[in-house]
Design brief:
With about 160 residues, the chain is mostly helical.
Length: about 160
């Protein structure tokens, strides 16, 4: 990324201690913007991958222990999503501020609603005869994309979460 792409941004690159963009440049089709989004999605994917491993392992363990797919998914997703939030809010979305209760509350509200919907879908798929692991994995592309987009929106304009405080 050249210096012209870096102007007006506030985030710090830990390796070089220089500023790097907090958001892409204004031209959404530039090569720099595509690289920026790909790098950010890759970092989010790594952290989400760890969260996914926690989620699937706990989900399958709970189902095997006799817990219904809906309750198993609510439990495993809640634990995994908390891990992903704590791991990605600073490392991927470069939020360097203090813990902001309204920001975390919005994250929780989104994921409670999303988890209930996804758990219902998974439960229906399992009851229709699809293996629990296949039902859980089959919905991942949709949940990964929506979670990434939501976290991007959530952390983009940080001042909206501190105005009320």
């Amino acid at each position: 990324m050249n210096l012209a792409d870096r102007r007006g941004h506030e985030r710090t690159d830990r390796e070089m201690m220089t500023t790097v963009p907090d958001e892409p440049a204004t031209d959404p089709l530039s090569l720099a913007d595509i690289r920026w989004h790909l790098g950010r999605a890759f970092r989010y994917g790594l952290i989400s991958g760890l969260g996914l491993a926690i989620d699937i392992a706990l989900f399958l363990l709970l189902v095997r222990a006799g817990v219904g797919p809906f309750a198993a998914n609510v439990t495993s997703s809640g634990i995994a999503l908390t891990f992903v939030y704590l791991g990605s809010v600073r490392r991927v979305f470069r939020y360097d501020g203090h813990f902001i209760v309204p920001l975390f509350a919005a994250y929780l509200f989104y994921h409670v609603c999303g988890t209930l919907v996804v758990s219902g879908v998974i439960s229906r798929l399992v009851h229709a005869g699809i293996a629990p692991a296949m039902a859980k994995v089959g919905i991942l592309p949709v949940t990964f994309a929506t979670n990434y987009l939501f976290m991007s929106w959530l952390t983009r304009k940080r001042e909206r979460w501190t105005r009320a405080l």
